[in-house]
Amino acid sequence: MDCSSYSTYCYRCDDFVVNDTKLGLVQKVREHLQNLENSAFTADRHRKRKLLENSSLNSKLLKVNGSTTAICATGLRNLGNTCFMNAILQSLSNIEQFCCYFKELPAVELRNGKTAGRRTYHTRSQGENNVSLVEEFRKTLCALWQGSQTAFSPESLFYVVWKIMPNFRGYQQQDAHEFMRYLLDHLHLELQGGFNGISRSSILQENSTLSASNKCCINGASTVVTAIFGGILQNEVNCLICGTESRKFDPFLDLSLDIPSQFRNKRSKNQENGPTCSLRDCLRSFTDLEELDETELYMCHKCKKKQKSTKKFWIQKLPKVLCLHLKRFHWTAYLRNKVDTYVEFPLRGLDMKCYLLEPENSGPENCLYDLAAVVVHHGSGVGSGHYTAYATHEGRWFHFNDSTVTLTDEDTVLKAKAYILFYVERQAKAGSDKL
Predict the structure, then answer these.
(1) 399 is catalytic
(2) Most C-beta atoms within 10 A of its C-beta, which of 33, 167, 292, 309?
(3) What mean pLDDT is reported for the chain?
């Protein structure tokens, strides 16, 4: 039982349940907890907790240019193997343009009339008409970086995730990249349709910083999701028999990159055996000309049958925020293995010009990206282990480990075994080393 919402979770049903025992024992437990909440004992416990929180806030201080400054970052409580969600939320909260858009949205009142102000018990069977992912996402982002609390509980957002994303129901460990894709896709779909009659896509049109030329439409009209993360790939396939060329343009929100097999034995930056894998190696492997194997024969319209062919990717349009996913998990016959190779990546000046289809049409600054956040998976398998995130905020790097947020340095970030990298397009001119 959740002691704040009094929701009861059944492990056999893998769901929150509303039914009670014949003797009404669940309701008796709820009433007992409510009585405790109002008792002097609980009031004293809350007073001590506040004192502890205040002391921890006071301890979250650092020296900047000789003066003492408070760390205003807020952690996210782990609700039961929800570190995959926390790492993604903290990363997205530090992508300023994306985060600001949601924080500036008007609040939506989802409960009114007889249910207003009442405590609700979570269950999947309540239906999906009274939930809004955009609204709960907005509330979560607003709670972060306020400095009013050391940790925030994203319970309401997780409840909505259960409602609309069946893959993430329960308390098993999940894949952070898979969650990010589902989250962005559902935010995009809800923003397209609006909620409770409010067309939130119209706010995007009013935002002058997200011009029409920067939009990439995926599944219909553009939203802030596609305006920020949307890019376009050109998929070029050539028949090796007749030479027929086929071109297709595919929109993307992130790029999934293989770690080349020749680097897979090197697990740390300082390990001596063999060269270090770099992000450039992964990008080159993604965009290099590749001959398709026998299981991927191309249906040539000129030859009128499946033929051997080559495939090559070009980036036709770069996004404002380039999200790069390193494929660290691979299926074998019986299990999913993790590729634990260290991949070197730059903090500043990731140059994407050589991967563009028409590099001459892009200015030098438009192809340079600076790192905003990194998601890291610690452990050996996708169904186990732990996710944390590093992100930069106002020139300082922070490590987000669920409810714990600590100040860190660039060297520590560079040693991390990245799983997902978020690079933001550089706006101002600044000298830096290129990748």
Answers:
(1) no
(2) 309
(3) 79
